[in-house]
Amino acid sequence: SRSINLAVIPGDGIGQEVVSQGLKVLRAVLPQDVKLETREYDLGARRWHRTGEILPDAELESLKGHDAILLGAIGDPSVPPGVLERGLLLKLRFAFDHYVNLRPSKLFPQTATPLAGRPDIDFVVVREGTEGPYTGNGGSLRTGTPAEVATEVSVNTAYGVERVVRDAYERAKARPRKKLTLVHKNNVLVHAGHMWKKIFDKVGEEYPEVTTDYLHVDAATIFFVTQPERFDVIVTDNLFGDILTDLAAAVTGGIGLAASGNINPTGAFPSMFEPVHGSAPDIAGQGKADPTATVLSVALLLRHLGYETEAARVEEAVAADLTERAGAAARTTDEIGDALAVRVAN
Ligand code: IPM
Ligand code: MN
């Protein structure tokens, strides 16, 4: 019989609240014969304050044994910036070689968007997840003096670029429009930018059915707002992808709806699914957080594990729920989770 051995990292702030709803919907949508086992990992700000630990080796090792990871949010104002982000979230993405950071953007019917009359936003950003300016390569000189210097060096390997570009071509090929846009800044970042473009063009020779395009990242931000329908699949580096996907979320109903998957396509390590949003400490514990981004991340998780029917059912439930939401009274985190669980069970 089938089974899913899931690691759960609720993390900080609203993480616990939204992850509970994600699990609720997951349990409701899974067929009877699928055995769901979950193990919760106590990682994040509370753990750090209590023990000083961020991600002990034993837990990293144990996480490897799961089929997938569901993560809520990492980061808390009581911890210096970067400690948990680098030591936990990015450490997991790097250790488990999550080189495809998949972030779909779809404008569901009835969803509030600042872009009036644009019903046709449906693209996916393939953000590189293990390289670029996120590697921590850089340093500080003469700290605390007027002559201080800080460098943050973007690392781009042909190996790393080619594998994510190839994954993006495969995704574009599988979609009806078959269009892939490379976003970079090769008019200024000539070293990395030219390598990305060269590899993008070379791999593209193997995908004659895919239409390609190139945009500088600044121009891409304009088109996200003025012409989002021009995008199908986008491939870009780690930092550009981080920024673009927040903008993408803002134009498709807000950060409360944006899902993501940190994917290791080879299956060598478990992939990790998490809402794009952060820990939102200002509203934590108040039942105000929208769990929809986590629920949609559960849909990505289901699809990744081969449960396509169930993934689609979750997405349909969200679409229906969002349609009903328009003009209705605000609901709590729990109420939204309950409503979605009821929908997917039917
Ligand atoms: C995200 C977040 C992270 C990132 C932070 C918290 C390290 O902003 O998942 O988009 O920059 O990747
Ligand atoms: Mn981000």
Helical fraction: 40-55%
Provide the CATH superfamily of the largest domain: Isopropylmalate Dehydrogenase
Provide mean pLDDT, rounded: 96
For the largest sheet, list the strands in their spatial order: 2-1-3-12-11-4-5-10-8-9
Oligomer: single chain
Overall geometric form: globular
The number of helical segments is 11
For the record, give the distance between the C-alpha atoms at the N and C termini, rounded to a whole number.
23 Å
The ligands found in this model are: 3-isopropylmalic acid, manganese (II) ion
Strand content: 15-25%
CATH class type of the largest domain: Alpha Beta
- Please tell me how large the radius of gyration is: 20 Å
- Which spans of ≥5 residues are poorly predicted at pLDDT below 50? none
CATH architecture of the largest domain: 3-Layer(aba) Sandwich
Structural class: alpha/beta
Largest sheet: 10 strands, mixed
Q: What is the CATH T-level topology of the largest domain? A: Isopropylmalate Dehydrogenase
- The SSE order reads EHEHHEHEEEEHEHEHEHEEHHH
Structurally, the number of domains stands at 2
Strand elements, count: 12
